[in-house]
Amino acid sequence: MTVEGVRISSISRIKHLAWNTIASWQYLASQAAGEFNDHKLKGAELIELQADEIRTFAGTKKKPIWIFAAIEVWSRLWISKVVGNRNYRNIKTLLNQAIDACRIVNPFIFTTDGFEPYSWAAKNLIEFYLFVCASHQEAPEESCH
After folding, report:
1. What are 102's strand-pairing partners?
2. Which element (helix H / strand E) includes 56?
3. Ramachandran class of 5: left when φ > 0, alpha when ψ lies in -120 to 50, beta otherwise
4. Of 97, 96, 98, 82, which is closest to residue 47 (Cα–Cα)?
5. Architecture of 44-143 per CATH?
6. Tens-digit pLDDT string for the chain (145 aa)
7. Measuring CA to CA, which of 41, 43, 45, 125 is 20 to 30 A from 76?
8. What is the DSSP letter of 143?
9. Are 48 and 71 in contact (CB under 8 A)?
10. pLDDT computed for residue 134 by the predictor
11. Of 23, 66, 51, 72, nearest to 116 (Cα)?
12. Pairing mode of beta strands 48-58, 129-133
């Protein structure tokens, strides 16, 4: 039901279970899915890595939370994810997770939304890549390898 977009309160009512029980099951399922990915996705060939982030809110709109994701475009595998502040440290973690999970056979394409820390992190973390800025701005000459 969660995958189909049914809210926790509706699942609780339909299944005659406490809201906390449903939330606990969802948490355990997400943990199991993450562990599955961590163990089973190792070694996928990295051809094109796309990284992006989305802002969301939990509890209050005064403190946004950022969800970072990296996907291997050709295989459609979600290689890595990080939740936290929109900063270089989290982008570095995201890219390190992707590099650790994948097999790099040839130089690969790396695309982002143009958020500057992606370019800096790629230059310092990835040996062979072609950086493509997917925003409306042109990628600086020095950020393409």
Report:
1. 44
2. strand 48-58
3. left
4. 98
5. 2-Layer Sandwich (3.30)
6. 888 889 989 999 999 999 999 999 999 998 898 788 777 777 888 889 999 999 998 777 888 899 999 999 988 888 889 999 999 999 999 999 888 888 888 888 888 888 888 888 888 877 666 666 665 444 444 444 4
7. 125
8. G
9. no
10. 60
11. 51
12. unpaired
Amino acid symbol at 87: N
- Residue 57: predicted pLDDT: 86
Contact partners, residue 23, CB within 8 Å, separation at least 6: 8
Q: Which has the closest alpha carbon to 99: 89, 110, 88?
A: 110
Helix axes 88-101 and 116-125, enclosed angle (nearest 10):
50
Tokens of 129: 């890549």
pLDDT at residue 77, rounded to an integer: 86
pLDDT (0 to 100) of residue 66? 94
Neighbours of 82 (CB within 10 A): 20
- Rg of the Cα atoms in the chain: 18
* The pLDDT value given to residue 137: 46
Joined together, the tokens standing for residue 48 give 């094109």
| Locus of tokens 């890219």 | 95
The residue type of 51 is: A
